[in-house]
Design a protein that fits this description.
Elements (H helix, E strand, L loop, with lengths): L1 H7 L2 H8 L4 H25 L16 H13 L9 H12 L4 H16 L1 H13 L15 H14 L4 H27 L4
Helix pairs in contact: 1-9, 3-4, 3-5, 3-6, 5-9, 6-9
Amino acid sequence: MVAHDQAENASFITRLMSGAGTADGLVALLRQSLPVYEALEDACRSVGADPRLSAILDPRLDRTEALRADLATHAAQGRACSTVVPTVEAYVSELRACVADPAALIGHHYVRYLGDLSGGQIIKTMVRRHYGIEDGLSFYEFDIDKPKVYKDAYRSALDALPLSESDRESALAAASRAFELNHRVFLDLEAAGIR
């Protein structure tokens, strides 16, 4: 998927992962993530009983409280970010609109949480290695013993969701938009001079 490749290879994230960024860049990324996860998790709670997605919802995936705790930890260490880039507002609006289209929420849920369970683990390892950060990384920590087994079970549950063809199209389109929005967040951070 082109949108996925663009997001994964954006210069902001590749710089952060290679050690050419800064710890402040990580904090800025966490700051952008907070309103996105607040909106995603609010939407999931609003439509959580809908059988089209109830089987993939799991409170162990929720990230809002971990993000708040991480940002407080970084602020206590003198690293804070008040900037919220414009794309985050568009992202939040899209997630709020998913309450009216729960099938679209499936695409966003998949991209965010499976990304956190996969690439997020790599980000955590790399920022520890490059920037010496040990605290303020609970966003990347899940109460899940075997992430690979969990991800496989998630994908199986996803495949078994009772979706119509139009639901599937809506979920796939939303997943593509989620990757695109993530890429645009990285571009906005880059444009803001955040490294």
